[in-house]
Every structure is written in structure tokens, then in C-alpha cells.
Protein 1
Amino acid sequence: MDAIELLKKDHEKVEALFQRFNDGGGVTGVVKRLTGNAASPRQRRSTAEQICRELDVHVATEETTFYPAVRALRHERLDELLDESLREHGSIKDRVQDARASLNDHEKLRAAMTSLQECVQHHVREEESEMFPLVEQHMREQERDELGRTMGARKRRAGTSARAPRTAARGRKKTVKRAAARTTAASRGRVRKTTAKVKKARTRAKARAGRRR
Ligand SMILES: [Fe+2]
Ligand SMILES: [Fe+2]
């Protein structure tokens, strides 16, 4: 896939996630909130976490792969745009950090996500309106395809590591469940042994009483 196409798809995906965070945004969002159909705080937190993960991977992919390839074109205006973009990435990273620090406070999270969305939308507009068209003019299609494949592979690797904590958490849950099951089985076994001992003691006592008579 063409590198620019891949980056635009990322932009669309993040915008769709912001819409989900805002219950569809605009009038739809207001109606959903008024009719009690808004996302729960838990769903909103999960969407915010997903947006942060997507942005981590997107920004890192651009900085390690796409921007260096654009820099190599040695184009004066593209150099200026890259410098500006790197500054904006700095602001996005700061806001992602703020959002992650606000995950447990509903109001703070909403404010942090609004600020992050504004920053991302501004940056995306600049990339798509000026940087990408210039790159399309100065980078051959074949090179953009190769770059797209490298970026896709990098994103897949990053996507796997982003999901790792959830897998680990699931693994931890299973371990806890198994441990709880073992404890229950062991305690059942102990109860059975105790009951058997009591029965034996009763039988022995009856037998002794019978001999005495
Ligand atoms: Fe960017
Ligand atoms: Fe981008």
C-alpha cells in the first residue's frame, strides 16, 4: 500500500475513534446524551486508551520511517514542514500523556481529549493539505509503495506489543481463577476427610458402648 494512503487511513481511524468518544459528535452526541444513550464512563475510558495507543504507533511510524524518507528528498519546503510537524508531534505526545493521567476522572478526561482532538485535527490538516501532495509530486510511486510496506510491518509489530498487556492481564486472570479452583478443591477435600473421621469416631464410640452393655 502507498505510504500516504496508509497514513490517511490512520488519520480516518483516529477521527472515527474521537467521534465514538464524543458519542458521534455534534447534534448526534447531544441527542444521545439527552436520551441516555451515551457511552458509559468505562466505554469512554476504553476508547480514550485506544486513541492514545493509535496515536503512539502512528506518530512513531511517521518519525522513524516516513519523515526520514521525506527528509531524504532534500526539498526546502518539505524540510520546513517536517520541522513544524515534529514540533506538533511534541504537543500531541504531551496531550496523550495528559489524557492517560486523566483516565479515572470523567471531566478531566473529556477536557484532555478535546484538547488532544483539536491538536490532532490541526496537524492532520497540515499533513494532508501540504506535506502529502508535495511528497506525491517528489517521491516515485514505487518508493511510496515500498515505504508503505515497511510502515505496515512496523505498525503490525507495534500493534502486537500494544495488545500484549491485555493478553498478560487475561493470563493473570486465568492463573488467579485456577488458584481459586485449587483452593476450593483442597478445602472440599479437607471437609470430606474431616466428615469421614467424625463418622469413624462415632462408629467406634457406638461399638464401645455396645461392648459395655
Ligand atoms: Fe504526523
Ligand atoms: Fe499523520
Protein 2
Amino acid sequence: MNATDAVERYSDEWLILEGVRCFCEGFLKGLELPPRQTISEWADANRKLSSESSAEPGDWNTSRAEYQRGIMDAISDINVSEVTIVASSQVGKTEIINNAIGYYIDKDPCPILLMQPTENVAKSWSTDRLMPMLRDTPCLQGKVSDSKDSGNTVLHKSFPGGHITMVGANSAAELASRPIRVVMMDEVDRYPLSAGKEGDPVKLAIKRTTTFWNRKIVKCSTPTIAGMSKIDASFQQSDMRFFLVPCPHCGKYQRIEWANVKWEKKETNEESAKTAVYACPHCGACWNDVERWHAVGLGRWEATMPFNGHAGFSLWEGYSPWVPLKEIVKSFLDAKDDPEALKTFINTSLGQVWEDKGERVDETRLINRREDYTTAPPEVVVITAGVDVQDDRLEVERLGWTVNNQSYGLGKVVLLGDPAAARIWEELDDLLQTPIPHALTGEMEISACCIDSGYLTQQVGKFCQERWNRRVWAIKGMPGEGRPILKRAPGKIKKLNLEFFLVGTDTVKDVVYSRLKIDDPAAPGYCHFNMSYDENHFIQLTAEEAKTSYVKGRKLRYYALRPGRKRNEALDIFGYALAALEGLKLSGLNMRRRWEKMLARQEYAEKVREMVERNPEVVVENIPKPDILRPRRRRRLVGRFA
Ligand SMILES: [Zn+2]
């Protein structure tokens, strides 16, 4: 259609619409607020870096470390209520917090809380970071009175329209007062679990912001151990932003990752580090420091999860314009052979959580490999039990053992009742004397049992003493590296004249966990479970993990509950049943000989049956027994070992 047609056709509607548009624009113009400044704009316009706290004093320049822009502007963004920054050291996190504080004091005054791990850190932040900014940044000068009679202290400063309080996460009293609109929490992974008796300091601080619809919660920290890191947990709940930079060679946007840092192996760590380059995973080109820093200048944040009001940022030294690559590689090479130093490197340089790899057992795998048996399989040579005493029940595990140390779970039994009363012990006694159906021998008795005497020591001690000849042993768990699985306790339980045994619980857990990790059902040590074990049993069985810590340079390895796990009885009773087997072996049990005997007896019975079938007159006593079944001088297994 030509122009004239078009005008004729649309002119009427067009005139009406245009009129409405003009009216609306005028109306909105009248309502329009002055454009809101972001924190990065404020900082670029006003902020001065002080000589005592900055290597580059003078005018602030956000583009010096471009990734800071997105973080600071998220803090001033009205749609963001929570900001989480997981960062290594040396990325400028301190100044991000300072800029936010300066912005709020100058542009959006309100009550602010700045939390540091301890009160001392809070005090030095106030004197070394905050005061120089207030002094050197012109628009902040004079806003905070430093005269003594203004009520201002090192940790509390008021300004027109608001105040800032600095606290240590360890001081509970400070956390319970006044409402706060902006909470900034620095180094949250170094906070104590509880502020005095008041509970989680992070929760306490957030609670104080509830009266403000426009509250702002900012958390930042270098992360610590996976599963325990608060900042990592918080980041997982955010929209998880990562900073993408374009390759100077192929232009492809990508995260800067430690895995792409390459170096050549030379004589010394220092020489090796000097060869460090960043290799683009897309084109293979190597970036030098200048190229990398230039790429960071062109970078942008990208969220990996939907935005729900919580912006999360992840950063490491590889993005920092203040750290040459060779320095990062040098610290890695210096740290790599010492787990504790390596953990520090991963936390503070890579800004990542430390995973204690290979020390955990996955419960799902165990659940999925349960088997369909109800009687003890033929290869089970001996059955032992382990008993844990709780204040309202006894938990009993019964395990069948084969010659190659495989175990068959024969079903956990929970006896409910008060262990201080007699009834439950009678039930246990019955259970321990109940034979278990066996595929080869018809049935099999429980040969030995370990009962934890840590709780109700006298009761357990007495019960076991009376059943000494049935190899029912009272045990006490002893943590610590290198202890034997089972040994006789040097003393007797006081006054009672009772014997008891010590179980090296860490050694037992080492054995149990290394066996639970075996995947080949034919391999020695493999642990079989039948369908009677439920999911909860496996969650308990895998509840602990080995940890390593260093005390005065000495390495300490110990077991602790994994985060989120509460109960571990299934692990304990498995371990006690294993200790009972150890007791039998120490008393002279020869698994191989017992196994051969079982087979021989079976063969002999078969032979007798055949012969009787052929000739019903045969005298059974005259059929020769194999050597292994001839009676020997009997040795009683009563646990008389050292
Ligand atoms: Zn490239």
C-alpha cells in the first residue's frame, strides 16, 4: 500500500493513540524521581582511597577491577535484598564493603550493622578502614562527629539520618538491640557457631532487619570446608553469578578457572611458577597477565540460577588485577604436599571450599546393592553380634563372617525399653541365644557379642560377667589413632571386679569404612546387606567421616559426624560386631579350619545318607570320618587373651 493509503487507513486511531501517549509522558515526567546513583557511580564520583589502607591511594576507579561494579551495584539495587560474595583474598572485598558503607552514609542514611568475626577485628576495621575513608572522602567529611560527647565510640558512630554499629560475632549482647536496615557480615566462615548462648550470629543479625521492607543483607567470606561453610551454603541459595571474560585471542566468553592455569616443571617452585600462563580452553592460546587483566576489564557477570532477590557472586585470585599468575602458582606449588597448607590455598587463593575427598561413604550406593537373602548364606563361618545401649533401647546387629572377611548383615534388632530395668536384658539374652537359620548347617549360634558399657557401665558389666563363658563381652570405646581393634582393659570396672575390653573405635571405623567402599561383591572384605536394612540404617552407617587437623604441626586424624547427620548407632554396632570377631580370633578361632570342617561335615553327612540308602543295615558309627572331623583336645574360646 502507498503512503496516502496508510495515512487514510490509520490516521484516526493514530491521532487518538498519540494523544494518550503525550498525556501519559507528561504525567510520568511530573512523578519522576531523580535518577538513583549506584554504589559504583557514587564511588567513582566521590571515593578517595587512603594512603595507610591502600597500595594505590587517590581516586577510586571501579574499572580497575571491573567485577567490583556488578557486586557493588547489586548492593544498591532496590530489587536485591540479599548479596552473597564468596571470594578469595586479594580481590578487593574490603573496599567493596567500605564503598557500600560510604554510599549509605552519604546517599541513603539508615541504621547499619557491620559484623566481623571478633570484637577486636571489628575495632581494627573501625580505626584502620572506616575512619580513614570518613576522613579522606570529601562528601563524608564532617558527617560522623568524632567529638567525645556525641555518644560515638570506636564501635558505634552516628551520622545525620542513621548510625553504624560494628560488632564481633562473638559478642551476643550487641546483637540483641536496635533494629537495623543494612547488615554487612564479613568473613562469616570464621564466625563462632553461637554468639555466647544466643545462637547463630548470622541469624541473630538478620533477625534485627525484619522490620525494614527495604532491608539489605550482605555476606562475604573466603570459604572453608565443604558442608560446613556458611558462605558456600548461602551462595548455593543465591542466583550464583560467575564472571565471564572474553578470550583476547578467540573472543569466547568464559570463566577464569584454576584448571586452565598451566606451567612447566622446573628445578625450583619459583622457576616453575615463572612459566605460568593461562590457556584458553576454546582456542588453546595462552594469555599473559596483561591480556588476562585486559579481559577482566571487558568481563560481565552471568547468573547460573534464577534470581529470587538474592544475588550471589563467586570470585578468586585469578580475576584480581593485583595478583600475577606466577604468584598464585608459586603458592600452590609451595602448598601442594601439605594438606593443611593446600586447604588454605584452596580457600584463600581459589576461593573454593575444601573437600575432604575419599573419606566419606555414599549411603545411596549401599542401599541400592542390598541383596535378597533371609538365612545366613553357606559361606558364613561364624556369627557375632554388637549391642549399643541407649537410654530407651538396645540396638543389636548380627553379622555373619566368611573366611575372606566378607560380612553378611543378618538383620538389626531394636529392643525397646528402659535399659536400667531387667526385662530388656532378658530379651537381649534370649536374642543372643536364638540360633540363626544357616543355608549349609541348618542353623548357627551367635559365637560372640560386644556390648557398649559407656552408658550404664555396672549393668552392662554385670550382664556380661554372668555370660563370660558365652563370650558376651563388655567393651568401652576408645578413640585415637593406632589403637588395636580389641584389647583387654588394664583395670577392672571399679568395685565390681568385672572384666572389660577396649575397642579402638577409630581403627574399627577405618576398617568398616574401607570395607564399605569395596564395590566388588567377590572381593575380600565386601559387606553384604539384606533387604531388612532400611535407608535410615545406611544414613547412620555412613554418618561419620575421617577428618584431619593439625595441632602445633602435629597431624591429628579423627572421626566426626558429617554435617546434617545426627545418629550413628548403626556404625557403632557394626563396629562392635567386628570387635567381637576380633575377640574370637584372638582367642584362637581359625576361620579357615572352621570353614573346612563345615564343608567336610556336610560331605560326610551326604556320604552317610547315600550309604544308608544303598544298605539300610550299615552301622553308621563304622563309616570312617574325615580327619578334620576327628575329635581333638578341645580348646575353649573364652577370651583369655591379652
Ligand atoms: Zn580463546
